[in-house]
Amino acid sequence: MASHSDTLVVFFGATAGANGGKLGSDEREIILLVWQIVDLHEKKVGKLHKCHVKPDSLELTDQCKEETGLTLDEIIKAEPLDKVLQQFQQSVSSEVKCLDRNSYTLCVNSPLIIRQALHPEASKKNLVLPECFFSFVDVRKEFHKCCPNAGPAQKLTLTSMMEYVGLPAVSEQVMGVREVMSMVQLTLCILDEPYSNSKTEPVDSETVIRARGLPWQSSDQDIARFFKGLNIAKGGVALCLNAQGRRNGEALVRFINSEHRDLALERHKHHMGSRYIEVYKATGEEFLKIAGGTSNEVAQFLSKENQVIIRMRGLPFTATPQEVLSFLGPESPVTDGGEGLLFVKYPDGRPTGDAFVLFSCEEYAQNALKKHKQILGKRYIELFRSTAAEVQQVLNRYMSTPLIATLPPSPIVSTRDCIRLRGLPYTAGIEDILEFMGEHTVDIKPHGVHMVLNQQGRPSGDAFIQMKSSDKAFMVAQKCHKKTMKDRYVEVFQCSTEEMSIVLMGGTLNRSGLSPPPCKLPCLSPPTAYAAFPTPPAILSEAALYQPPLLAAPRPPQTTAHSPAHTLAYYPPQPHLYMNMNMNYTAYYPSPPVSPSTVSYFSHPAAAAASPVLPQPGALVRMQGLPYNAGVKDILSFFQGYQVSTCSTEGRHRQKCVF
Hints:
Layout: E1 7-15, E2 30-39, E3 44-54, H1 62-68, H2 72-76, E4 79-80, H3 81-98, E5 104-108, H4 112-124, E6 135-138, H5 139-146, H6 158-165, H7 177-191, E7 201-202, E8 206-212, H8 220-226, E9 232-241, E10 247-257, H9 258-265, E11 270-272, E12 275-281, H10 284-291, H11 296-302, E13 308-313, H12 321-328, E14 341-345, E15 351-359, H13 362-369, E16 374-376, E17 379-386, H14 388-396, E18 418-422, H15 430-437, E19 444-453, E20 459-467, H16 470-480, E21 483-485, E22 488-495, H17 497-504, E23 508-510, E24 513-515, H18 542-545, H19 605-610, E25 620-621, H20 632-638, E26 657-658
Parallel strand pairs: 1-5, 3-4, 5-6
Antiparallel strand pairs: 1-2, 2-3, 6-7, 8-10, 8-12, 9-10, 11-12, 13-15, 13-17, 14-15, 16-17, 18-20, 18-22, 19-20, 21-22, 23-24, 25-26
């Protein structure tokens, strides 16, 4: 029956809500798993296993109680899903080994338990499913091959199939046990047919739906996670943009066939975080209209596989390909030279100052990222990691001619290789976090600990840590969640670099989705970018103004006899705490966050003596809320009684008040 395995594992599951044909439609958790092994060669049957599963929400619907016969007391005593899945895998592996077999495949009566219940729930709970749950045999389809006159496979039931072949009904009344025993009998019956031959069905999908109500910061990875268990066709997620080129909360998703599309429609008003998502049918024409590309130049650019994409922002409008190549230098060669560059232009051909660059390996891309905020011409250039999806999104607003849907998948996908710590003691420092991480400290990326401060420069109780891989992040989240630090339990969640970036840039990250940082005032933590200046010139250069922001906990406020009412925190220069500039700042459309408009450094006499890199003792103060007609005289009058010096930067004039 299953041509690629020695054994079948007949598998059944039930949820705390709707079951049968509506299983998974109400997002209720799994409360029952039943399975039994069938040896395909010897046609022998193994022991029947039945496990209750404890859900997070201890509530059973009346329909569930009636159908399953389970009570809340039985469920409370059960193990959670992750433990039951471990038990399942150990039990099946042991039995298969005892039978002297090498492999096994799941056999189900309906794909709903796998696609609509198990995969979505595992995704929400950050569980890693065993590999066996990514392929299965549908007993109805196998029966239809043997008995095509029995009716359409989708309408077949266990009762109707057994009646058709003359098998007696199973007398067992317990839900789950009855279904598994019936499937085993049908399986043995099908094995007796000489033409019995099947292929396992991969968890994949096509045809088009429209998802509406998405958090506007949702990525294609978030959408794929929402439809977990249904494989989306290659390049099958098209995010819809509004007239301004920003995401409007809708997406068109193409699955591999109509069956998977129909299963996707069953997730209408299922939740992404705390928001429910509407799912409707859509047409192929709508998908092509949104997912279509642009010119042959763009198609050729995206057709190069296994490339790392970097986005450049702030290029001079007169910049040529040769100037960009020279800027990147020989240590970061661009793929195919000028053909690996794609300048973003307005419809009339005017340059936007953005460009995308292809590199053949991670090393070249890392070398390019080191050029972040270096000068080309008279402008500093920002470099960020990017993806093929972002290239398409940025250019999509200027597109009119559909591009054949053969765009390759992004070579650099958003991986969840970070963790978020929430509820830290306000006195906690980096050393406390490293101690809290314990043995997992070795898996942290260099300079990968980022403390989050509020707009007042005080610890917020949050921190982000960049791990070496998504697997490492997952393990930390599993083992350290609600572990105690200084008498407080700390919540640990797995997250992506983009999610971390949004919070560090002043946005919010919660169950309601992602909220971007304000576009006019990126509230970094600290509120402005703190950096030690590399050289002590009398007038700061533009390159010196834009150094990587420093994220660290401040020393207590320093006060003097002449201090103004608002005390200032002191951030000593600590280069090892600079934020990792490999962070992807392109987390929200249409471009990376705006550049910092000011740079502040706070000094202290002792620090000035210890740190010769500061040009002079003093403090640079940022003023907000000035009247629009305020001039230098007004500012000097405001600080009457304090010694103030002023200077301006080349190209961009800024007033700095140094005390």
